[in-house]
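#lab-general

N.A. 3:47 PM
ok so I finally got the sequence cleaned up, no stray characters, all 269 residues accounted for. can someone with queue access submit it? mine expired

B.Y. 3:52 PM
send it over

N.A. 3:53 PM
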Amino acid sequence: MEFFIEYPCEQLKDYVAFYWGTKQNNLNYSGREKIIPTGCMQLFIHYGNSFLASENNQTVKLSNTYICGQKYSSFDVLGTGDTAFTSINFKPYGAKAFLGYSLNEFTNNNFPTEDVLGNEFISIKEQLINTIDYKKQIAIIERYLIYRLNKTKFRDFQLIKYSVDSILNSKFDDSISNIANHLCLSERTFQRKFLESIGLSPKQFFRIGRLQKTIRNFKFYKEKTKLSDLAYDSGFYDQSHFIKEFKLLTGLSPKEFFSNECIESDLIL
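B.Y. 4:20 PM
back already:
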């Protein structure tokens, strides 16, 4: 299957990380992929058969177009043969600017796009399905996103962007109270705004960011580093903490995870 990745236009670069998917003339995918938390939301458009999602021994068929909320644990996606897709990968603070809802309502859930964006997205979906060239698909998507951006006002954007950047650059020691103080907010108000705008608590977001940092470090150093050194460099307290966090977020031990050749490639944070 042939994949593409494209980056957003200037007007959307603060909100969208990238677009990726399959070229529509390659509609044959069957297999099982483990999806781990990334700290970002996505919008998927499927052409052909929808994917299946499997979690906690339950398998459900996903909608042809759906919004994937924040995840705090891994799940498996199963291809069902003739299918292809385009995905909008938002930045951690990006989805709120287009959706308008409190994003904690989406956490650990997938919602059909029409249930969130209404009937206006139906015509967009029809245009995408009838367009084979992926660059033209992205042009259609971007026109719609710019329309939504102008329609939906995200008043706390700069505040949340600053918070995300601060958390990802911290070791989390007292960082929440420090960020709240810097923004002249009570800690409780800050936590509420963050949860509504990101879909995760600051602590959950930090833990996912640390997981992503660990994977990036592994990809950079490859076999030149021991897992114990990787744990320390990524900010884990000790080996036991390292293993516990990995099992919580990926369902696998670090050794099992890093021995898997299919480590998720669409890292965002």
